[in-house]
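Project channel, design review

CF: Before we commit to the marine sediment metagenome constructs, I'd like one complete example in the thread so the newer folks can see what an input/output pair looks like. Taking Phosphotyrosine protein phosphatase I domain-containing protein.
RD: sounds good, go ahead.
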Amino acid sequence: MSIEKILLVCLGNTARSPAAEYLARDYAKKYDVNLTFESAGFINAFSYMQ
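CF: and here is what came back for Phosphotyrosine protein phosphatase I domain-containing protein:
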C-alpha cells in the first residue's frame, strides 16, 4: 500500500492547513514526489458572516 493523497487539517482552514498544503506541494515538487495534498478545517470559520 502506498500513500497517494495527504489531507492537512486545522480548526478553521483559514491559515495553518492552507499554508501547510502550500509548503507540502512546494517540497513535493522540489523533490519530485508524486503526492496530492489538500487542506480542510473542522469548523466553518466564517459561519458568523452568514
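RD: helpful, thanks. Residues 16-30 form the longest helix (15 residues).
CF: The chain has one domain: 5-45.
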